[in-house]
């Protein structure tokens, strides 16, 4: 396993211009990412840019993806390619400390350098909701891409390389003696190559696709009292008390939290293994929202998509859109840290949705009109 340093290190064969930049958004209303006020270690809390990607020739991209075993569905348009733009906003909310981390890379090739058989365009996004301190969330944000691209299955089997990366990053964090390995984090990532997007989730962050105004959930919240997670927990000897794993943690999957895990290599109720969804992007897929549970505690997936779509139709700016979602969550009395990423798949704003008029004209009979009049008078 590669040695993990405090800074993001490029994998072997990758040029040294690899850099992860902290996203900062700020408005006149004071919504901004908190870069200070981080909690002390072993804190008692248990709950927990807009850059368009360069698009190569379509035929070149199709041959690259086909060589990797990635093909477009027969019912899709083979000439469609997303143009990736993103914006993010993070706010500590009413909490004393900011424990969230996130990452936005709209152009992976530019960030990682030239890799053999590395398809382009590519992008990577992640939200990491820390608890019990920031060590776990910060470590995973800085190292998760490295573990993905260094995996032996990358890029021929992306799902396996992402799963391995989550588990390797979790184990590597346990080996970091200088960090508080009892801190933990949920992890939600989205890796995009051409038209293919793979969303991986361990925890209760959520990714939601905006598809012509309709919300399509791309991840499942890992709560201890959900049927599948509760069955898995109890099978491995754990228990759920009042919605908490072993009475301690409000999520059933997380990286870190090594005070609650079994020795490396053995299964335990608290899992770092992500669940994944693969999707071939189409023209109807307008944008994606990735957010920590602080957003979803006060907004439904459909409400967030509706709000985001209205904002994008107004100004077509994913960063302003993410800021507005954070502001809306605060208006709804969110009680947690708030981190939101909005990823647009086109340079254009979402189009207006035309509702076809019904050609069948409806009328009401005189008898029906009289009955309606009587009913209205009775209610007055």
UniProtKB/TrEMBL annotation:
Its EC number is 3.1.3.16. GO terms for molecular function: metal ion binding; protein serine/threonine phosphatase activity. GO terms for cellular component: cytoplasm; nucleus. InterPro entries: PP2C (IPR015655), PP2C_BS (IPR000222), PPM-type-like_dom_sf (IPR036457), PPM-type_phosphatase-like_dom (IPR001932). Keywords: Hydrolase, Magnesium, Manganese, Metal-binding, Protein phosphatase. Signal peptide: none annotated. Its cofactor is Mn(2+); Mg(2+). The keyword Aminoacyl-tRNA synthetase does not apply. It catalyses: O-phospho-L-seryl-[protein] + H2O = L-seryl-[protein] + phosphate; O-phospho-L-threonyl-[protein] + H2O = L-threonyl-[protein] + phosphate. Residues 85-345 form the PPM-type phosphatase domain. Belongs to the PP2C family. This is protein-serine/threonine phosphatase.
